[in-house]
Amino acid sequence: MASPPVAIIDLGSNSIKLLVATRTPGGDVQALKLRTLDARIGAGISRAHPVLGEAGMEAAIEAIQALLLEAEALHCDRHVLVATSAVRDAGNGSEFARRVKNATGHPLRILSGEEEANLIGRGLTADPALTNWKEFYVFDLGGGSLECLAFRGRRTEQAVSLQLGCVRLTEQFVPDPAAPFPVAVVPRIQEFIRGTLKNAGFAFSLPGGASAVGTGGTVTTARAILGARAGQAFDTSVPVISTPQLRGLFDLLAPLTLDERRRIPGLPPGRADVFPIAVLTLVTVAEAGGLASFHNSLCNLRHGLAAEVLG
After folding, report:
1. Predicted TM-score of the model (pTM)
2. Fold category of 6-114 in CATH
């Protein structure tokens, strides 16, 4: 008999996501419901002393309440709310956590960067497509941070959380997100990304030709766009995205205005302002590590939390 379902709500910098999951009699974590709402709580995250804005906090709480309501229909045994980069970096993150508890009755757990990275790694164990993978990298790019992991023998060898999220970098390097991407700053952005990887001590130390897994909204959105351009629904689209495909996607996006990007099939309008730099970040990481492609996995932080809660 399957275990009673649990609801996991992940407050990212760019969106808020729900997973309702159970553990099957065979021991697997099974997703019963997945839902994402755009609510950018991470605006202003690149400042020296970031603070969550009132509008962002109100939108986030409304989104949490809506997702909790959806979870109620599945009679969840437990509800777990977590926050990542935007809230942990904000000077008023603990105040926001208190507001969430007052509004919903549920505590908000603010994950450290290390906790976030390791839970993403644990979440990947729920992906049957990765059952036979032994040595590989994992990159989860969100609005506030980039989680980087290396697995050897299916055990975590490295896990770091870097302040390379697409909302953060857009605020830092792009003067006008509504205009075509300023390609003149591309070398500076890539130098910054490479330097951050190096300074954090993330070494591409696995044997040559090791594969990479991409989780999170950036890789999933890239897959959706490429699938739409090929006339494929997301569920039937190819989960492997090559580095040349990502370079081509950046070249497609860079000359477009924000309004033009919002009309691209597969690209959620709420991500259109930060998506060019997100793709450029993945390209830069791939080039730094000599990675040929990313395998898109939909098992991520929420699945890791579900595995933790379900025991």
Report:
1. 0.91
2. Nucleotidyltransferase; domain 5 (3.30.420)
